[in-house]
């Protein structure tokens, strides 16, 4: 362990409800410089077409992340010992102006990327992933492993709006931010607008794995395919909390019954091991529709699961260099 | 597609929270004439012995059904293209007078049946199924596929009351509305009043499948048996939301832990394919005990799943005629 | 009574939880033609800077307005007998695009105004009042009686955004839609950004009545002044639900303690009698933060109070013509 | 103090959340024999026309009544020292059968009356007051002091139903249980069905005091009149929780804004001093719509306020005899 | 059936929401004398390090236990026919003083044990199990089958506090109350403080079965091992409600995603058949964080499942003696 | 304005839901050095005898305090311009050990006092005021102005416990921390344990003003007396949120109906002007029982009202020196 890495407050010393609320009780820092992984909030739901509220996601995920401890009980990973991690605060946003909101998020994220920290962000709605990718994938398209109930590759809404939380991945592909042949979507389900709704995605080369296929095959098999699709190149991981069942994640804007259990979601993320993750997010946690912090806890725990995989990868890279 | 079929409002044009609330955003019509399938509310919980509130079910199921889209993502069914479907409103009810309530529901439902529309109703408590069957099964007993935590074949309550939401199927059999040899109950669980509580049902010929048997055998096997039991005759499908686990459907009056997941419930209903459904319902959604519309969403989605199966059957019949 | 006026469903015949939900259980009509007063929803919160959710306001105000009956118990007004009133549905909105949202609302409202119906709208956030005024006050500035915790005459937010729910009245004055000398704000309270925050408003001639002044003087005195300020010219009435105390209207986005009681709010609105109201609204009801429909009920009742005053005015005008 | 009177559990010894839940932490007894005042629950909402749930009222009022202590802080009354009071449990009810429900309540209440205990009941909806009066007023009509938002003197609902929570006092007068000339209603408000809706009540001689009159005159003046109306004869006091404002009593089925504050309600009940109370109730507490027990606490506290007045009266009578 | 055993109130006679609330609607008795199994509440959360509220657990579990009926639908067990069971009320507690709280619970539980009744308690936080074991295991260490998300074998908190709900089993082993070689923990999961956090437990001989191992092996296999570990000696069963997934048991203080489904939990407890249970508990139900009684219902149902196993054992012992 | 005073984040630049949550959006600092007024959280409810949860108060009051702006709209006070104010975080607490908790709070508060900052703390339950007074009143007794529903001068609970949230002021007087002749309690109400319950307080010289006296006299008169009682000496102000009515502050542990309106509470605190405040607190905000942050908002606003009075006093002192 590099002893100067940031360490979380210990819940056996300071109770979880005490102290300023930060992601995983890590120090709040004002710059990503020196960090391996930057935990960052994006309190913005400007792209939401149904129930808003994901703007409140980062605050509640910070609160609930006080339940995270230092060591992963299965893998044994100690993320805060093998990587330097801190809470860099929330990106600047604009709840009123969609285009300005996109720009602010991109600019904020670019600062993190330029500091050579890998971002792990807490949304915000899924449209936040677009400006994040503009910063993270600048210069070269990335692979994408996408957990979601919805494909989010629609074209336009409300008579021509190209930017909503239902369209980020179409835009990202059009902008060359994602290599669609290195993209996989897992957990897609629920009724669709048109029979060919996922044709465009498939035509780009995206592999769309419906929930029903996941149920048949299981996490191991599906993730083996996902890792093969992503390959060894830089890959972004986007986790929409509505991929999890609404009973376990009620606080979200577009719930679909029949989702992942949290056990399945944990298994899926653990199987990301070995992927070269250049950024990740957990999005669409909407506290106004939640109960007792349940969804924010699920979101915070998925962030911890992602962090463990990411920190392991950071440590390997450091060891290898 | 017969272009003059009613079509839902498109959520990519009008947001889901906008406009008058109808089942699946279909037009509200004043008569079932010309419809293949009539979506109808029965806001009545006069038979409820524990927590009331199912009277509010239709309104909330309408609200949450705005999340339904046009196409089933697995079967590809486009129910609104192959069948004429609309929202015929709520049946007349009487929250104060049980016998008058039963009569009003029967009368209202008879109008729909006489218009040759197949009813898919949103309850209301499970006693609503009795007057519905009086209209739907008039003249010939029907088969019945029944998803529920409870058998609902008790005899009387509170010193002799024959009509409660715990007794509809005993009454329906006594009245010759159901052919008990063509009846199956799936998902039954929870403690019971007396050791022989289900003896009467079994003695009539009803096949009672406990949750534990379902867990062992799985949806495919159980539904193969259910389809065989129902046979090719006219069959009614009754879906009590409390068959689903309380974590996924907390808004109900008599919750029992250990229920179906929504994934299992969807699988079960999809396996109704081929059954000659002459009517169906989703009952016992009780919004006062719900969170963020979760149970109403589960109920509305089960209605959509049922609708897809029913519309397919309608289309086949039309094609065959 | 003109017998062909639209009449509400009677709760002694059809229970309040039954039937399609419309404002005050009036018929849903597709055009404002022939109406004296058009009840209309504006499900849009694109201007909200803090907690969103007012987009869900119209639906819940419709639901709770089922508690309204036919006659005002104090004034004896029978609004549905002296004016033709109906629910014209929701205006078209765009939750993603602020400028398009403003335009859609203006266009929709213009259709109502051109049909010579007086609009009584249910928001939506307070920015909706701007496009409404663009339609209602086209051609001549109107007086404005404004109940609110906040002045909503700020200039810009988030680095220059001119359109938020904190700015509609500054914009409306700049656009010549309001005659600021005929404008009064009642109930203003809570901490402010800058010492001179209300100087601009006062410099325009707006009369700003703080809650503390209201407490000292009482409703009668304050409304006598308000009526004098508005004078006999055409006047718009805007009622922000956050003028009411958060205990009585918790479901709102920017609550301020120390507000009106609902009794005071009712007294204030009843004292509008004699004002030439050319349009009115109740805004900022945000159901995701509400309890058991309490705020929506307060909003719906304020709509009924406004309606009684407006219908009386309509009847007088008709009698006078 | 008669030392063998029942005493409540002391919260300084046993915390309020501990132990079996009874009214005011008094012993649960199986018979009213020997009691001066019997606290009794009537868990029945069979007469409810809108939102049900008052059936759960007694249980929650018991829970919240654990916050009551032994002495009234203003009057100094020690009800448990000057009267023998206990919790006699819940009356037998029937949630399914209205006529049987009415009969069971009447029979149960008659047992209490015949034991010469004065009942203070926790409803249940307001229809429960009818069978209570049948027991309490058997043989001679009583005076009635009635706190409510609604007059509850309607005739019939839903095509002729004479028994609902909107009709108990018309039925009671028709049955000769109430002397309408000794009856007063306080707090009536909200829109009404017909212009002459309260004409029948007034024609019987009932004094109807609207909320607006109460606001003008205040509690002292209004209650002086009420006491004069009731006179020295036996009088029943019926307190509908919806007389209190929905912000302070959200858990009820037919809320009307603009109600009493709890301070006003307490003042009103304290001014019952000297009235010969032969029975009293607190009705329409509906926990499913409540927050954190707030309404049940208001109901339990109103029961305590009533109890103090009733116990004082009992003590005076005993002293006088 | 021994006809003089206590019997629950029948929900087909008295509705579930009526009457005083006791565990499973059994009589409230003042002494455990004559009972085979004593149902008892321990309303105390003095050891809670995060969110408090388990002090309210017994009251709500009593309320929700009204949904239990007389017969187990799978095993056919009729616990109230083969064992004498009653509700002995709540133990004396002290919410302010931890050491006095521990002593009161131990003393209260000793009274039950000395009456030769087997306790089945409703917590309360998990620290309550320590004083219970002091009474139950007095004189000889017991085996322990422990269902939980957390091992609860930590050493100290907050600078040296030895008694918290995270430490009871370490203390119990140190005090010789548990034979660690006859102890198994099932369902352990979630991030941990230190890499060797469970080393102490394992070093004592405790078998720690992580959730992931349970998922792989299933209930049958795991419980076969658990029964072998417990052997034929006296064994205590401790069921922490947070072993169940937070979606099914949100009302708890230290939720961890990825828990047992209630179906799995039921299966696990049913497989306790044959174990010589000398006491059992269901702990950590915290109603302030619950929805509509869902967690309390899960807790009450687990109590019923435990009761059926315990009653069977009691009956066998009686038959054998 | 001293330009180097800490300034809050501007909500017109950064939305209220964004950024790390601190009191009034001020900087989080690690030491009170250089501050005039230190905002500090005390997340501890170890003295709570009924419903716990005040441990979560500071976090939610921080969240809701984001609604505070820079200027008091009535007095024109700009607290952040005339005093140096910041958020010094939460004091160290111990949720498990009452005596250690008291010591930690006293020690933490002493550090603030020794840095010559005036503390304005957010509780926590009312027992926190005792250790705060030990630090603030060290060396000389202070006057105390106390807003509360309860006198909190009881002696012991649960068989002799001297330290609970019902006893802090008796202990503080016994310890010589308060000059009881300079102490006044305002808003006391609700039933009491014993007839002479407030005799001890009065015997010490405490002036106890019941709610009923406040209603008669009004805020101006009562506060004139309160200021006279406190005199010109150093005075502590303790504001229990349960002094406010439960409808406006439902999130608290021992609610009493009939409380202050928030308007009254604001008026009372504003009339503290001129008092030499050496410390203040807002206690007993318990988020688990709250709705949509309503109580925390009331608490945060009362903190802002107190801050304005305190900052004015600081500025006067500075000007005078």
Automatic annotation (TrEMBL), chains A, B, C, D, E, F:
Pfam families (UniProt xref): Arginase
E.C. designation(s): 3.5.3.17
Key word Manganese present: no
InterPro entries recorded: Agmatinase-rel, Ureohydrolase, Ureohydrolase_dom_sf, Ureohydrolase_Mn_BS
Keywords, alphabetical: Hydrolase, Metal-binding
Gene Ontology MF term list: guanidinopropionase activity
Family label: Belongs to the arginase family. Agmatinase subfamily.
NCBIfam families for the chain: agmatinase
Name of the protein: Guanidinopropionase
Species: Rhizobium herbae
Highest classification ranks of the organism: Bacteria, Pseudomonadati, Pseudomonadota, Alphaproteobacteria, Hyphomicrobiales
């Amino acid at each position: 362990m590099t002893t100067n890495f940031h360490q979380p407050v210990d819940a056996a010393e300071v109770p979880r409800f005490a102290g300023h609320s930060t992601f995983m009780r890590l120090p709040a820092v004002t710059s990503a410089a020196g960090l391996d992984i930057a935990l960052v909030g994006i309190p913005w739901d400007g792209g939401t077409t149904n129930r808003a509220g994901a703007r409140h996601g980062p605050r509640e995920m910070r609160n609930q992340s006080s339940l995270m401890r230092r060591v992963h009980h299965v893998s044994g990973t100690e993320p805060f010992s093998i990587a330097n991690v801190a809470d860099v605060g929330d990106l600047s946003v604009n709840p009123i102006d969609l285009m300005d909101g996109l720009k602010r998020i991109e600019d904020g994220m670019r600062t993190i990327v330029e500091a050579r920290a890998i971002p792990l962000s807490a949304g915000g709605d899924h449209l936040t992933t677009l400006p994040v990718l503009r910063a993270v994938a600048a210069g070269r398209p990335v692979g994408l492993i996408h957990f979601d109930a919805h494909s989010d590759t629609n074209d336009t809404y409300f008579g021509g709006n190209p930017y909503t939380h239902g369209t980020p991945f179409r835009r990202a592909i059009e902008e060359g931010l994602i290599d669609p042949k290195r993209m996989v979507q897992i957990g897609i389900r629920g009724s669709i607008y048109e029979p060919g709704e996922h044709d465009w995605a498939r035509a780009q080369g995206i592999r769309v794995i419906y929930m029903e296929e996941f149920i048949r095959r299981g996490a191991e098999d599906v993730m083996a395919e996902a890792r093969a699709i992503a390959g060894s190149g830089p890959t972004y991981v986007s986790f929409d909390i509505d991929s999890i069942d609404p009973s376990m994640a009620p606080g979200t804007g577009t719930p679909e019954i029949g989702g992942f259990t949290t056990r399945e979601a944990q298994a899926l993320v653990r199987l990301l091991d070995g992927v070269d993750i250049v950024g990740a997010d957990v999005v669409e946690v909407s506290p106004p529709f939640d109960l007792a912090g349940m969804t924010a806890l699920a979101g915070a725990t998925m962030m911890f699961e992602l962090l463990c995989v990411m920190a392991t990868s950071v440590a390997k890279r450091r060891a290898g260099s």
